[in-house]
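We both want to read discrete structure tokens more fluently, so let's practise on a single case. Would you write everything just below, so we can both look at the same thing?
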Amino acid sequence: MSQSAMDSLAQKTPEPVARRIRGLSDRTIAWLFVAPTIFLLLAINIFPLIWTVYLSFTDYRANRLNRAVEWVGLKNYQRILTDDGIWMNMQATAHFLFWTLFFQVLIGFTLAWLINKKFKGNDLWTTIIVLPMMLSPAVVGNFWTFLYQPQIGLVNYVIEFFTGIPANSFSMLGSVTLAPWAIVIVDTWMWTPFVMLICLAGLRSIPDYIYEAAEIDRASKWRQFWTITVPMVLPFLMLAVL
């Protein structure tokens, strides 16, 4: 083949993709891949949040869509902050939030630590534990409403078995004292698998050589847990909490 033919063939050959984008940095390429997701999150989360904040300064009513919206300033916030019922509701919400996060993190991390230990049936148990998270809230609500029934619900009979209190003498959902804890149990049951999966990812991201170095230094299992496992899984726990 002549030199001119080789030059002509080289000119017709397309450049590799990597060579075409050689002027872009790795950071720019990463942002190109992440940008669509960011725009989607902005459209779904950030814009509704900003719109809600705007509506909070108006007299907007969802059941009166045809009525003109007027600007009222801080009147809505003033009414909320001076209403005793609002503070009681916020206290109940804080109670629910604290205990659900506490139990979900504690149980989720414990389950992740156990699942991370290789044993027979590991994958089967992981699937069973994750099942509640895969159910819709409507299904979970109906399922636990049935379990909490005073006459036929399983929960009341379990409590009767351990405490001797008659099953039909109390209602988990009908008691002011027990109802908040009943909801905490349901939310913990449903979302603990999510925390477990995140913690499991954190545990499996810890390199084995760190534990090997700790064993060479004769660090006990307890010390390895508090100085290696917990600090390296803590960022994942914070992600789960958020």
Notes: The radius of gyration is 28 Å. The mean pLDDT is 84. The chain is about 70% helix and 0% strand.
